[in-house]
Structure formats: structure tokens, C-alpha cells
Amino acid sequence: MNEQGQGGYPELSQSIMGAGVSGDLPTMSQLTATDVPELASNELLVPLSDDFLTSNGFEQEAIDDIYDGFLTASVYDGERFAMPFSKSTRVMYYNQGILDEYDVELPTTWDEVEALGELMVENGDDRVAMGFENGFEMEFETMARQNGAGFIDGETLEVDINSPESVEALELIANMFDEGYARTAGEDGFFSGPFGRGESALYIGSSAGVAHVQPVADENGLDWGTAPIPTLNDTELTLFAGNDLALFHSASEEEQQGFVEYVNFLLQPENTAEWAMLSGYVPIRESALEDEDYLAFLEENPQQEAATTMLSYGMSSPTFLGYGEFRNALIDAMDDVAVSGMAPQDVLDNLQQEAESIIESNN
């Protein structure tokens, strides 16, 4: 095996696209779900159906043991084109000291987050209840879907971004900014730093970010932990992120079989659990949560446990041709709210039109 690193996600994507153009593709590669539509539509990837996997030695029982939200991440035009590998989910980091100071329980709903924010503002606290990353598009999409919005349907590509349910979710976020209940990371780039310095009671970020929060929080003597993200409309939902493993069409039959054997090895319960312990990502298979070493790891590292409690109800955002362009438009729309102070209804009306135009021109 000839293994080659390509840097971060953008560099990896560029390398894959360049190899596709030149015809010098590797046997397999890590990629993000956003890469799949373009590569699959150009017939560069091998569809990884259950039949293909099982005919090459991957047991159906093992496939069924993988969390559904991971398996659907790399579906394009009704077919799966990659297998999950390094995956994360959103979690809520909390500062127990601030919660104790205000004698409040750990919030589990967005109403409770707002109530904490109101309490802190009333007391003249210059800290905030909730911290968001500068890019909080995942939080908005999660809240919109929790509230019943279709957002973008993965099968029909019907756009439902400016529905009343979506607008209500974004208005909740905008109101928290306006009232001083929440803020973004700003010049820090990511909110792990401000949270670790004690500048917020709560913070929503990636479960893989524990390694970034921990040294800052420990340096500042914080009593902190992680919890499932708050619910809206009593709906439990979180979004998955991370990367998958794909097989390129230029691979020989022997290489294709080797790919399946390799992925099968990586996703053995004890191996996906070990990778989660070493990397900060989450286990891919349900049975990995029963691994004795992983259970012992969670006992010693309780900040890693919240992510695992949400795996059963997590989902991956549907991707499509033009998704990268849409994602950039979504990020810009969040800036229009957080930075420019535009009304959520106007922002989402504009984003609805952009999304429909992007989908129509690419699909």
C-alpha cells in the first residue's frame, strides 16, 4: 500500500479533483460527503451497495450495525459512494461554574438557553449564555430541522429554507445576538478559546473539538463538560460531519476487493472504537459502544460521552451537485444575520432563491 497525505480537507479535495482530470487516480481516498456528487456524476467512484460489499467479504450484519446517519452521508442519486470513517457530531460544552453561580440546571432546550441568557444580562454579566462558531450554519440547519422545516430534501431536492419553521429558528438565533445572550467567536476564529477562558456558559461545537477545548479550559481551572445539543420543538436531532472512504472506478478487481477488506478491518467494533479513542472522532458502529476498552475510556474521559448519546438520532445533510456553492451561500446568509443585522425573513427569502437557482443549474 502506498499511503499519501494531502493536507487538510480543501487540499485533499483539490488533489482528488486534479487526479480525476489527469486520469491518475488512486485506488481509494478519504473525502468529504460534499465531494461525492461531482465525483459520482463523472463516474469516478464505484457504487458501494450492500451487494457489492457483501460479495467482497463485508458481512451484512456489520453493515446493519453502522449508524444510519453515517451510511447516508455519501448517497448520491440513490446510491452510496463512500463508507464512513472519521465522523463527528455537534455537542454542547458547558461551564458548570457559571451554571452553579446562577443556580440553574444544565439547559436541554433552547428556551432554557434563552432563559439563562436573560438571567445573565439582567445581572450585568459581560459573559454570554451561548457561544457559536463564526460559521454557525450547522446550528441553524439543525434548529430549522428540529422545528419541522424540510430545509433541502435529499431525494427531491425541494427547497424549504424560507418556511415559517426555518424563519422561526433563525429569529431565535438573531434574538439571542440582539439581546446579548449569545455571540460568535469573532477574532478568535473558533469559540473553543473564549469558552476555555470562561467567556460563556455554553458553546456548541464539534465533538472532535474536545482536544482544543481541554487545554485552555484546564489552564483556566474550568469545571466543564459536554452534553447533547438543546432541542427545539421537543425534537432530538444533530448533524454529522467528518470524512468517508471512497473507491475509484479505475481500481482493478483485486484492488476493489482489497478496499472492502481494508474498510471491513477499520470498521471492526474494536478498531473503530480504538480510532475514536485515539482521534477524538466517534465510533461508527453501534456495537463499538459495548467495547470494554471504549467503556473504560469513557469512564476516564467523560467529556467524550455526550457525542455517543446522540448517534442514534444524528443525520447527515443531503448533498447534491452544486452543494459547495450552496454551502458558501448559507455561510454568507448567516453573516448577514450576525454581522449585518439583516432580518431573518429577508435573509432566508434570498437564500431560498439562491438555493433553487444553484440546484436548477446543476441538477
UniProtKB/TrEMBL annotation:
Family: Belongs to the bacterial solute-binding protein 1 family.
Signal peptide: none
Main location: other
Location of the protein in the cell: Cell envelope
Keywords: Periplasm, Signal, Transport
PANTHER family linked to this entry: ARABINOSE-BINDING PROTEIN-RELATED (PTHR43649), SN-GLYCEROL-3-PHOSPHATE-BINDING PERIPLASMIC PROTEIN UGPB (PTHR43649:SF31)
Pfam families reported for this sequence: SBP_bac_8
Protein's name in the database: ABC transporter substrate-binding protein
Gene3D superfamilies, per the entry: Periplasmic binding protein-like II (3.40.190.10)
Organism: Alkalibacterium iburiense
Top-rank taxon: Bacteria
